[in-house]
Structures are given as C-alpha cells and as structure tokens.
Amino acid sequence: MRRCALNLQEKIISTIAPSLEAKGYDVVQVRLMKNGRKQVVSIDIDKLDNTPVSIDDCAEANRLISMLLDVEDFIKESYNLEVGSPGEIRPLTKISDFERFCGRSAKVELHSPVDGLYKFFGELTGVKRDADQVAVCMKTDPDQVELELPYENIKKASIKRVF
C-alpha cells in the first residue's frame, strides 16, 4: 500500500514539476492524505527566486496543477487539491535543495548514525558527488567540524527560513 502511494506521489511530481518550474515555482513536497472518505492531494510549493509564496502564487499554482492532473487523469478517485507554502521550517527534499540553500543553517536527521549521532545542526556547505555516492556537506554547530553525510542516509532535513 505504501509503495502505491509513493508511486502516485512520484507520478504527480513528474507531471507538475516542469510546468511549475517554467512559472518560477519549485515543488517542495506532495502528500497524499484521507479526510474522511475523500482523498486530499496536498502540495507545497516554493518560489525559485527565494521570495515568499503569496496567496496569489498558491492560487496560480493550484489552477495549473488542477489542469495538469485533470488532463493526465491518473488519480482515479475524487480528491481535493490543496496548494500551499512550506512555511517557516522548509523541508529539504531533493539534492538540488541542499545546493540551493548552501550557506544556510539546517537540521538533518539520519536513518543510521554518523559518529554516533542521528541529528546534526549546522551550516550547509555544499554537495559532494562521487562516482557512486552523493554526500551533503555541513559544518556542525558549535564546533564547526565539516561532515559529509551520505544523501541516501538522510531521513529528514530542513532549514529555518527568514521572512
């Protein structure tokens, strides 16, 4: 059941991301939920120019997403579409997010420990790509030690945005 939901999320992202990017938006995350018997497709967007997402932005993105999903018609049951901003605590969900927010303070949680720790706080310093691995680089608080955290080991990551 979980794998089907993930496939649907991936399908939604691949369907809407190119058109949203052309309009200056980034798909942060797609969540599928149930509200009673009704399916809810909740999509968080961000602006590629790093300015705050407005209500008008959400309305524009909602109209575009609705049209794209109606044309593709792969969500078989009826659903409500919600489009919003990720808010003050912005999730980092893609490698490009770690590159985009380089120099910003972040919180990173891992699936398995590195140096005995699961959680790290510090400044994102970049992304390192090797032939077989991608690592997120960060200087940890307060000792400023630079770490390379394997991307596939990252469970959850976020930045605190300043508006």
Could you walk me through the main structural features you see in this protein, from its secondary elements to its overall organization?
This protein is of the alpha+beta class. It folds into 2 domains: 2-87, RimP-like superfamily, N-terminal (GMP Synthetase, Chain A, domain 3, 2-Layer Sandwich); 91-160, Roll (SH3 type barrels). Helix content is 28%, strand content 44%. The strands form 2 sheets. It has a 6-stranded antiparallel sheet with strand order 4-9-5-6-7-8. It has a 3-stranded mixed sheet with strand order 1-2-3. Strand 1 and strand 2 (38-47) form a beta hairpin. Helix 1 (2-22) packs across helix 2. The mean pLDDT is 91.
Which descriptors apply to this entry?
163 residues, SH3 type barrels, six-stranded antiparallel β-sheet, three-stranded mixed β-sheet, 44% strand
Give a nutshell description of this structure.
This protein is of the alpha+beta class and 163 residues long. The chain contains three helices and nine strands, in the order αββαββαβββββ.
CATH class of the largest domain: Alpha Beta
Largest sheet: 6 strands, antiparallel
- Give the terminus-to-terminus CA distance: 38 Å
Read across the widest sheet, the strand sequence of neighbours is 4-9-5-6-7-8
Number of domains: 2
